[in-house]
Amino acid sequence: MGVRKPMALHTGHHTKEELATMEKENEAATSSRTFLTARPPKELIDKRARDIWKEQCEILKDMDIIGDLDAFALVGFANSKSLYEKASKELSTQPLCVEGKANPLINIQIKYANEMRAFASKAGISVDTRLKYGALHVQENPDDGIDERFGGI
Fold first, then answer.
1. Contacts of 33 (CB under 8 A, 6+ apart)
2. Which of 18, 56, 61, 91 has its CA 20 to 30 Å from the CA of residue 82?
3. For 74-100, b where at least 16 C-beta lie within 10 A, e where not — what string?
4. What is the DSSP string of the chain?
């Protein structure tokens, strides 16, 4: 079974019963968003991870795509990004090859980049997730500025 789409992104024809069921599913899947204004959790590994947490919470306040149940994904993203930045900084002071082989820090950097990408998707801050959110927002608010450009003809 693939990833479920929000109701507004379904393009096929649905019966009234199917639409009502999808609406109930969307309502049931919604959770509170108190973590966005709370203190950063203790699971964050360092000051940089806490700063990343705060930055992302500020951005996510305006987007209804993440709730309290998703906080773990944001913790994982912040920790992974912090470790990625540390590995990148340390790698910048070292050669890319050590004794004819790739510097082991490259593998660490790749590992945290992959983790960061996976957690970003889960936390709703990946490009794909933001595009889906944007599509929902446009469908709910179809004002495209045509009236302003052409004077409401």
1. 61, 64, 66, 67, 68
2. 61
3. bbbbbbbbbbbbbbeeebeeeeeeeee
4. --PPPPGGG--S---HHHHHHHHHHHHHH----GGGTSPPPTT--SHHHHHHHHHHHHHHTT-TT--GGGHHHHHHHHHHHHHHHHHHHHHTTS-SEETTEE-HHHHHHHHHHHHHHHHHHHHT-SHHHHHHHHHHHHHH----SHHHHHTT-
Location of structure tokens 């446009």: 138
> Which of the four pLDDT bands, split at 50, 70 and 90, describes residue 144?
low
pTM of the model: 0.68
- Amino acid (one-letter) located at 81: K
How is residue 107 written in tokens?
Answer: 């593998």
Average pLDDT, the chain: 78
